[in-house]
Structure formats: C-alpha cells, structure tokens
Specification:
Length: about 80
Amino acid sequence: MKELDFFVTFSSLAAVAGNPGQCDYGFANHFMDSFAAERERLRAEGTRRGKTLSINWSIWADGGMKLDEQTELYFKKTLVSVP
C-alpha cells in the first residue's frame, strides 16, 4: 500500500473571523482547522503519514455566499490579499 503524501481540508475564513448568523458554519470550519493541526502534530510524532494542511478560503466573488457592501469594504481594508 502506498503511503499518503498529503492530507488537505478546504476550510473558510469563518473559522478564524466568525460569520454572524452562521455559528454552525464557523464552528465546522474551525473543527477542520483543529483536526488538521492535530493530525499534523501526530505526523510530527511519527504516528501519521502525509503532511496535513487546512486552507482557509475567503468568500469567492462568484460564490453563493454574498457579503453586504460594508462587510466587503471591511475585509478589503483589513485582510491581506495574496497575489
């Protein structure tokens, strides 16, 4: 059996910043981040194989979750954009 090279979860910035009115969504994404961190700790100890990473996506411009204008401006001012 081939060993695992990597393990990736796709999370949301809601895990870090929260999302008013969607506590369950923020909690679920935080769980993925915490699971990835624990799995990576176990990999460092040698009890798991494959690097673990959780990617915190921001809101996509054409996605189903839209921001109100004030929140969008706040995010643009406070979050670092990666080219």
